[in-house]
Design goal:
Number of helices: 8
CATH class: Alpha Beta
Number of domains: 1
Radius of gyration: 17 Å
Distance between the termini: 39 Å
Number of strands: 7
CATH topology: Rossmann fold
Strand order of the largest sheet: 3-2-1-4-5-7-6
CATH architecture: 3-Layer(aba) Sandwich
Strand content: 15-25%
Bound molecules: S-adenosyl-L-homocysteine, magnesium ion
Shape: globular
Largest sheet: 7 strands, mixed
Structural class: alpha/beta
CATH superfamily: Vaccinia Virus protein VP39
């Protein structure tokens, strides 16, 4: 089982989740639930959490690292401030094609802009302090490398939400219990979590639901940094 919490608790929380009104989101969820597709979208309880945070922030500009089929982009677009935008980064052509199709079907071509390519390069081209919210949901081994760019790109008082930080719970286990081929990801995720908890510009919290979420706040100009 890939859940990090007791199954009965996850089942209970998911039973409380209201299916999305947006037909494109519902279509993607159904295709996955029926086993027709294995697209790696955020879990329902993570979707609910993101909406709460985003409605609180009312972002003008969101950056997403890892578009996949556009599910989380379309979901987040419902929480933007008026005239707001999402910039989302994807490197895998198959995903890109699906995302373009879904974003077009949802009529969101003017709101959601996909930038094709490896985020390692794309991030360097984006404007400093340009984003109210960054959602990082790409290759987990790269989070630690992308973190300095995320901090540069966030506006003061901005929010970084990072998905899959507990990697099915493996991150909390001793590295000796981790399969050899997973050890690099394990140590990089640990490095990422340690760093967000000890970086003076950030206040962070690691939340054990979904596949593990990290919520980080970039200290603004006026806060007491303690
Ligand atoms: N946020 C999406 C799911 C993203 S899955 C949702 O919840 O709906 C992760 C995606 O990140 C995959 O499609 C993968 O191709 C992409 N990805 C991983 N590493 C990347 C990188 N370095 N640059 C760009 N895209 C990347
Ligand atoms: Mg994810």
């Amino acid at each position: 089982m890939s859940e990090i919490n007791y199954g009965y608790i996850v089942d209970y929380i998911r039973a409380l989740h209201t299916p999305p009104q947006n037909p494109i989101l519902a279509e993607i969820e159904t295709a996955i639930a029926m086993g027709d597709e294995t697209w790696p979208i955020i879990k329902p309880e993570v979707a609910d959490f993101m909406k709460v945070i985003l409605f609180m922030v009312k972002p003008q500009e969101i950056l997403e690292i890892g578009t996949a089929v556009g599910y989380s982009s379309i979901l987040m677009s419902e929480c933007l401030a008026e005239g707001g935008h999402i910039t989302t980064l994807e490197r895998f052509p198959y995903m890109l094609k699906q995302a373009e199709k879904n974003i077009k079907k949802a009529g969101l071509e003017d709101t959601i802009k996909i930038i094709v390519g490896d985020a390692a390069e794309t991030l360097l081209t984006l404007p400093s302090e340009g984003y109210d919210v960054i959602f990082m949901d790409c290759a987990k081994g790269q989070y630690i490398n992308f973190l300095p760019e995320c901090i540069r790109l966030l506006k003061p008082n901005g929010i970084l939400i990072t998905d899959n930080v507990l990697h099915k719970g493996a991150v909390a286990k001793s590295r000796y219990l981790i399969e050899r081929r997973q050890r690099t990801t394990h140590s990089r995720l640990r490095d990422f979590l340690w760093t967000i908890m000890h970086t003076p510009e950030l206040k962070s919290s690691v939340l054990p639901f979904g596949d593990g979420i990290a919520l980080s706040y970039k200290i603004g100009g006026t806060e007491n940094e303690n």
